[in-house]
């Protein structure tokens, strides 16, 4: 009975600590959101939440299409191409036309013509070279952005898959085994085959397994958030 009381004290202490950490977390969340009403809301999570299973190739394709830094680099490449076309067009002279009318005494004079600048040495080579350099630099930055995106997605995907596998193991195997062990120990105790301490050990093991299961769900959600951040879009299935 002393052992049972000690276990109850440990349980109550762990429960109070968990409640305190929860309230502190909600206060920090309200501070970050600048919304005090957050602390009054109920927070719940589905223990049987669906596990997403996207492919890394699909995520990379989505990331290269949705990431803001990649899209900005692509727009810069297109802009550099347009600047190069403009600089190359400046090689050709701008032809301008003119027309005029003049009346002098009884004479009426009409004049028309065109003006063509003669570019003998100035072929806008400096402007073209500068535009070509800008295009190469923009293309290099685009490749860097794409490579960085792919690396981030792959790293986040590995962490997400690891967390997802842990949730699956706990849900499909460990939780059921812990429940079964507790049920067997309790049935044996009721039949007088085992002492109460055996039941307490089984109950403690079950509680520890469930606590680890909750941690794996948290890690899965964090991994999913990191993966969505790397992709640049919410992942749905």
Description of the molecule:
This protein has 237 residues and is mostly helical. The chain has two domains: 1-44; 47-80 and 134-231. It has five helices and two strands, in the order αααββαα. It has a two-stranded antiparallel ribbon with strand order 1-2. Strand 1 and strand 2 form a beta hairpin. Helix 3 runs antiparallel to helix 4 (125-190) and helix 4 (125-190) runs antiparallel to helix 5 (196-231). The longest helix has 66 residues, at 125-190. The radius of gyration is 36 Å and the shape is rod-shaped.
pLDDT below 50 for ≥5 consecutive residues: which ranges?
none
How far from one another are the termini?
A: 52 Å
Strand order of the largest sheet: 1-2
Taken from the alpha-carbon principal axes, the silhouette is: rod-shaped
The tally of beta strands, per DSSP, is 2
Overall number of domains: 2
How many whole angstroms does the radius of gyration measure?
Answer: 36 Å
Structural class: mainly alpha
Beta content: 5-15%
Structure characteristics:
237 residues, mainly alpha, 2 domains, two-stranded antiparallel sheet, 5 helices, 70% helix, 8% strand, rod-shaped
What's the structural blueprint in terms of helices and strands?
Layout: H1 2-33, H2 56-66, H3 68-89, E1 96-104, E2 107-115, H4 125-190, H5 196-231
Antiparallel strand pairs: 1-2
Helix pairs in contact: 2-4, 3-4, 4-5
């Amino acid at each position: 009975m002393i052992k049972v009381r000690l276990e109850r004290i440990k349980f109550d202490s762990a429960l109070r600590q968990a409640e305190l950490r929860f309230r502190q977390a909600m206060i920090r969340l309200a501070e970050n959101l600048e919304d005090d009403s957050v602390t009054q809301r109920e927070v719940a999570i589905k223990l049987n939440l669906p596990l997403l299973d996207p492919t890394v190739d699909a995520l990379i394709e989505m990331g290269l299409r949705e990431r803001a830094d990649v899209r900005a680099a692509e727009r810069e490449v297109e802009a550099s191409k347009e600047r190069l076309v403009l600089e190359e067009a400046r090689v050709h002279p701008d032809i301008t036309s003119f027309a005029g009318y003049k009346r002098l005494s009884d004479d009426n004079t009409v004049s028309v013509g065109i003006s063509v600048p003669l570019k003998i040495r100035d072929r806008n080579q400096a402007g073209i070279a500068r535009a070509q350099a800008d295009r190469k630099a923009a293309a290099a930055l685009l490749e860097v952005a794409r490579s960085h995106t792919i690396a981030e997605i792959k790293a986040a995907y590995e962490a997400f898959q690891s967390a997802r596998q842990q949730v699956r193991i706990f849900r499909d195997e460990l939780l059921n085994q812990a429940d079964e062990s507790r049920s067997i120990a309790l049935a044996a105790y009721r039949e007088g085959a085992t002492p109460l301490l055996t039941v307490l050990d089984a109950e403690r093991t079950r509680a520890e397994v469930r606590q680890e299961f909750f941690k794996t769900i948290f890690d899965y959600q964090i991994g999913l958030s990191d993966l969505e951040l790397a992709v640049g879009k919410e992942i749905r299935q």
